[in-house]
Amino acid sequence: MDPTSAHILAAGIGLGLAATGAAIGDGIMTSKFLEGIARQPEAQGRLLTNMLISLGLIEALPLIVLVLVGFVFTH
Amino acid sequence: MLQGDVLACHNSLWTAFGLQFCSTTLVETWIVMALIAVLALLAARGARAGRPGRLQNIFELALDFVAGFVGGSQEVGPEHPARSRRLLFEYLATLLLFIFVANMLDVIPPYIAPTNTLNTTLALALVTFLFTHLSGVARRGLRYGGNFLHSPGIAGWVLLPLALIEELSKPLTLSFRLFGNIFAGELMLVVVMQLIPLRWYYFVGGFIPHLVWLLFSIFVGAVQSLIFMLLSLAYVSQATAVPEHH
Q1: CA separation (Å) from A23 to A16, A28, A59, B156, B208?
Q2: pLDDT digits (tens, 9 = 90+) for B71-100
């Protein structure tokens, strides 16, 4: 397998894993958020703020993977 | 191994004072600065105490938002000296306003966001890095080095390299988070616009999905500016935390 194909294959696998990680993390976080709203509906505002903050933080690592794999380790 | 260059500038380079500037990024940054300055001046000129004007209301909303975090943060509390609290508040408010307006500028077609390159975001993250350590040293003097010994006794010294790596990773993730979000958003926009390149059915092709993605980009830009500000606050709070005396 020549280097270019190996690079492209690695990029694809890396991006796929990053997307999977982001999706699972966001899913767990949102499910906990919904449980929290179901227990105490008046806390929705505060829970939403914290959820959005956590969303940005959790999505950071898959995005770093995207930037590195997509644009640094390939041509 | 590293084929691409994340710091590359795809537009013309200007050279001044022996340094190179990326023209698009620099001009966009000036536009953001001019926008904030003009709006702030207009808001301050028409400021009334009893019945605030609309622009003044918007600015007060943003500044009260930041002040709530600075005042409510546990390590940055009432016992923190008032002048350094004020400085922290001003720095965070500037960070929030700049990154928010810079990310929003991405939505208007001829303009791009100055934060879509690692140059800008790394600069912001390094300023935060300097601010945290200088705040820590100003607050605790030379004992600030003790902040990195997280465990008591010999374990703290053994784990010191890990603590230093963690300190170095903070500006790195800060810059890459903002850069990745905005750059990936712009790239997705270009990809979505090319979805179905039909001429007649232009509105059926990539046009409507691109509008949807633009809405999401606005949301992501706002959230990322908030996160940058909150993380900067958290890092400064950690650096200026004085250990309780037993």
Answers
A1: 11, 9, 9, 36, 24
A2: 776 666 666 777 788 899 999 999 999 999
Orientation of helix B208-239 relative to helix B82-104, angle to 10°: 160
> Is residue A13 situated within a structural domain?
yes
Contact A63 B184 (CB under 8 A): yes
Residue span of the structural domain in which A56 resides: 3-70
B110-157 pLDDT per residue, tens: 888 899 888 899 999 999 999 999 988 888 888 788 888 888 888 888
> Taking the model in full, what pTM does it have?
0.87
Is B128 in contact with B174 (CB distance < 8 Å)?
yes
Chain B nearest C-alpha distance from A45 (Å): 15
Residue A75 lies in a domain: no
Which residues in chain B have their CB less than 8 angstroms from residue A67's CB?
Answer: 6, 176, 179-180, 183-184
Residue A57 belongs to a domain: yes
Ramachandran quadrant class, B17 (left: phi over 0; alpha: psi -120 to 50; beta: rest): left
Number of domains in chain A: 1
Helix, strand or coil for residue A1? coil
CATH number of the domain residue A23 falls in:
1.20.20.10
